[in-house]
């Protein structure tokens, strides 16, 4: 413990100049020199305050920590350390308070967003239910419409299945029997006309022969004189003799222009 100029005896006011003079610290926080300690009634009563002395200790390194702190050389340093400590702690307390306030604001905002989301969910559920009902209504209306149309207009197969079968058969037969018409040239038309005339004459002769055989009267072929004697002209438009046409002669003849 270093010597300090303010340490003195509270009874005789002697200063602690060097370590040769011993001073004592009493439990009542009074200081006495060694000569004045004889007036304490064997260390039981303080002559300065007349208080009871529970214990005393010599000033030096043997004192306790609490007593040494009272004799600190620079007590203002405690204030500096205390002020720095207070500033440091106050800074972090302020940051903590700001973080708490910010978290409260965020929680309030989150509560508002949660409320809005719940409202949106309720509205979406209502819209979904309305759409389901609307879809069911449309399906029911479509079913009723289809049922009523089926009742009003029964299918044709249920009314007359035979007729429909015939119609389809006719359509199939007409579709299959349809043949594309061939192009007919003037030469082919003239040949076809001569062939048809020849067939007509043969059919007339055959019918006359069949008629004579059935009646028993023979019909002799008559000449032009007999028809002429009777005065009746021959009204047949068919030629007596049919000569076949030659393709070379027809090709040499110029074709008549169509009117």
- H-E order: EEEHHHHHHH
What is the subunit organization of this protein?
A: single chain
Low-confidence residue ranges: 171-179, 214-238, 255-259
**Proportion of β residues?**
under 5%
Sheet having the most strands? 3 strands, antiparallel
The beta-strand count equals: 3
CA radius of gyration? 75 Å
Give the N-to-C terminal Cα separation: 158 Å
GO biological process, one term: reciprocal meiotic recombination
Keywords: Meiosis, Metal-binding, Zinc, Zinc-finger
GO molecular function: SUMO transferase activity; zinc ion binding
GO cellular component, one term: synaptonemal complex
Describe, in short, the structure shown.
Keywords: Meiosis, Metal-binding, Zinc, Zinc-finger. With 259 residues, the chain is mainly alpha-helical.
List keywords for this structure.
single chain; 7 helices; disordered C terminus; zinc-finger; mainly alpha; Herpes Virus-1; three-stranded antiparallel beta sheet; 259 residues
Give an overview in words.
Keywords: Meiosis, Metal-binding, Zinc, Zinc-finger. This is RING-type domain-containing protein. InterPro entries: Zip3/RNF212-like, Znf_RING. It is a single chain. The protein has about 260 residues and is mainly alpha-helical. Among the domains are: about 1-75, Zinc/RING finger domain, C3HC4 (zinc finger) (Herpes Virus-1, 2-Layer Sandwich); about 75-150. The chain is built from 7 helices and 3 strands, in the order E-E-E-H-H-H-H-H-H-H. It has a 3-stranded antiparallel beta sheet, with no helix packed on it. A hairpin with a 4-residue loop joins strand 1 (about 25) and strand 2 (about 30-35). The protein is rod-shaped. The termini are far apart. Residues about 170-180, about 215-240 and about 255-259 have low confidence and may be disordered.
């Amino acid at each position: 413990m270093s010597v300090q100029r303010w340490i003195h005896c509270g009874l005789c006011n002697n200063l602690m100049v060097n370590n040769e003079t011993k001073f004592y610290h009493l439990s009542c926080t009074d200081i006495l020199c060694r000569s004045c300690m004889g007036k304490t009634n064997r260390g039981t009563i303080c002559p300065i305050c007349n208080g009871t002395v529970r214990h005393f200790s010599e000033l030096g390194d043997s004192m306790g920590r609490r007593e040494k702190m009272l004799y600190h050389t620079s007590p203002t340093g405690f204030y500096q350390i205390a002020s720095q400590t207070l500033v440091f702690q106050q800074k972090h307390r302020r940051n903590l308070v700001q973080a708490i306030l910010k978290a409260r604001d965020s929680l309030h905002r989150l509560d508002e967003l949660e409320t809005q989301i719940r409202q949106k969910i309720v509205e979406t559920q209502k819209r979904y239910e309305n759409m389901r009902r609307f879809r069911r209504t449309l399906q029911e209306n479509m079913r009723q419409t289809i049922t009523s149309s089926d009742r009003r207009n029964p299918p044709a197969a249920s009314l007359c299945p035979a007729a429909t079968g015939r119609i389809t058969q006719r359509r199939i037969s007409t579709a299959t029997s349809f043949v594309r018409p061939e192009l007919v040239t003037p030469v082919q038309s003239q040949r076809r006309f001569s062939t048809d005339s020849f067939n007509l004459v043969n059919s007339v002769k055959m019918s006359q022969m069949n008629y004579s055989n059935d009646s028993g009267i023979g019909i002799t072929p008559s000449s032009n004189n007999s028809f002429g004697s009777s005065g009746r002209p021959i009204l047949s438009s068919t030629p007596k003799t049919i000569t076949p046409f030659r393709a070379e002669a027809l090709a040499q003849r110029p074709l008549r222009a169509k009117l």
